[in-house]
Amino acid sequence: MAHNVSQDEELLGILRDVATHRFHQGRQVNPNSMLYQTVSVAVDRGYLNNATLDANYSHTLASIDLTKATLTEAGTAKLQALTNADDDDNQDKDATATGDNNQPEA
């Protein structure tokens, strides 16, 4: 079952996948999907080079091709920032789960 993710979580996944060259073929997606919208944001903000988006692929589909995509300097910096934020969130969740929130005892 799918769960909703934030755009930052989706962007983190896309930037990681582009950095590790995990896109081996283009795909057709709903132009209203989180994937398409997030790739569009990444392109608009200058995080990706050589990403191909086509919102006019068909009446109901758009296409995304990230096979030749690479991260720009801004993309690399954003990936690092999102990775650090994700690591911080995971540490906070771990501390909450274990009750170790680094607070002095009264």
What features would you highlight for this structure?
single chain; about 110 residues; alpha+beta; Arc Repressor Mutant, subunit A; three-stranded antiparallel beta sheet; two-stranded antiparallel ribbon; about 45% helix
Provide a brief overview of the structure:
With 106 residues, the chain is of the alpha+beta class.
Characterization of this structure:
- The protein is of the alpha+beta class and 106 residues long.
- The chain has one domain (7-95): Orthogonal Bundle (Arc Repressor Mutant, subunit A).
- 47% of the residues lie in helices and 13% in strands.
- The chain contains three helices and five strands, in the order H-E-H-E-E-E-E-H.
- The protein has helices at 7-19, 34-44, 73-98; strands at 27-29, 48-49, 52-54, 62-65, 70-71.
- The strands form two sheets. A three-stranded antiparallel beta sheet has the order 1-4-3, covered by helices on one side. A two-stranded antiparallel ribbon has the order 2-5.
- Strand 3 (52-54) and strand 4 form a beta hairpin.
- The longest helix is centred in the last third of the chain and has 26 residues, at 73-98.
- The N and C termini lie far apart (43 Å).
- The mean pLDDT is 87.
